[in-house]
Amino acid sequence: MTAQTLTTTTPGQVPVRRGRLRRRGGEERTSRGTTIALVVCTLAVFAPLYATLTMSFKTTAQSVDGQVFSLPSPISIDGFVEAWRLTNFPRGFAISVFVTVVTVVGTVVLASLAAYAIARNWDRGFFRWSFYYLLAAMFLPFPVLALSQVKLTGMVGLANPGGVALLHVMFQLSFSVLLFTAFIRGLPEELEESARLDGATTWTVFRYVVFPMMAPMSATVAIFAFLASWNDFMMPSLITADSTLQTLPVLQSVFQSQFSSSYNVAFASYLMAMAPAIIVYLFTQRWVMAGVTQGAIK
To 5 degrees, how large is the angle CA 210–CA 219–CA 222? Predict the structure, then answer.
């Protein structure tokens, strides 16, 4: 049986070789290189997750025996109890939830409003250059601006979780506006014109016509903002002055110093902190893929 390599050719473009082969009967099969790459990527994600899960349920003696991938025997939850006490988990969890909720809501609201104004006024120079200005901010990572941000937040009294959430919103705006703008430019303007003929204002059109149609992209932006704020370590550790108001990722740094030999406690804390992010992603990943695909096409 022979196999035929598929190519796609469009007018004016160089033929593109696909990563799949088609058999003579029309049955498609994935190439061996793609399969190997997928297996390697899967193991790179699964192995650390498996080690974290098994280490969390081991006793302290089992966690230091050098058998990282062995199953816990017997299963112990002492690591979770100790991690709960050392990190004051309820308070850290509440602060992380506050920062994340403010970041997600603020990013979706501000980015959608800015993107709607830019997309519907693209022919006007001010809005077009505003888009380019926001786009350029994507190339300024937080570590480059860390010193100035720490000074400014301290001067205006924002060296707290509220200031961390505000900075998260600002750093998420560039990428979020890019996604929203690409999506809005693909929406039909006839619906907005019909609403205006019925007497609707610009805000009414956005609130009741445009924003509901942006639901898939809003979900995508919200998930990216959630992951960025929930898992962030550097910004809250530098901005928040009071150590009792730190988020969960910062509180876990205690296990890298005085409790460095209590691997079961450390991994139990890591598992409790990343569990919400894993659960959110498992239930919303289809919206991420749908939103990114629609934004790329439009």
Answer: 110
How does pLDDT run across 42-62, given as a tens digit for each residue? Answer: 998 888 888 888 888 888 888
Q: Which residues of 152-171 are buried (b: 16+ CB within 10 A; e: fewer)?
A: ebeeeebbbbbbbbbbbbbb
Tokens of 133: 């200005």
d(C-alpha 5, C-alpha 158), whole Å: 59
Instruction: Please provide residue 4's backbone torsions phi and psi, each rounded to the nearest 5 degrees.
Output: -115, 125
Cβ pair 236, 166 in contact under 8 A: no
d(CA 276, CA 270): 11
If one counts every other C-beta atom within 10 angstroms of the C-beta of residue 22, the result is 14
Return the SS3 of 178. helix
Within the chain, residue ranges assigned H as helices are 32-56, 60-63, 78-86, 89-120, 125-136, 142-155, 161-184, 190-197, 202-205, 211-213, 215-230, 234-239, 248-251, 263-297
Q: Give the pLDDT of residue 16.
A: 47
Residue 206, judged by CB atoms within 10 A of its CB (0-12, 13-18, 19+), counts as buried
Q: What is the reported pTM?
A: 0.77
Q: How far apart are the first and last CA of the chain?
A: 41
Residues 6+ apart with CB under 8 A from 187: 210, 213, 214, 298
What are the φ and ψ backbone dihedral angles of 118, each rounded to 5 degrees? -70, -45
**Using one digit for the tens of pLDDT, what is the confidence trace for 116-171?**
999 999 889 899 999 999 888 888 777 788 888 888 888 888 889 999 999 999 98
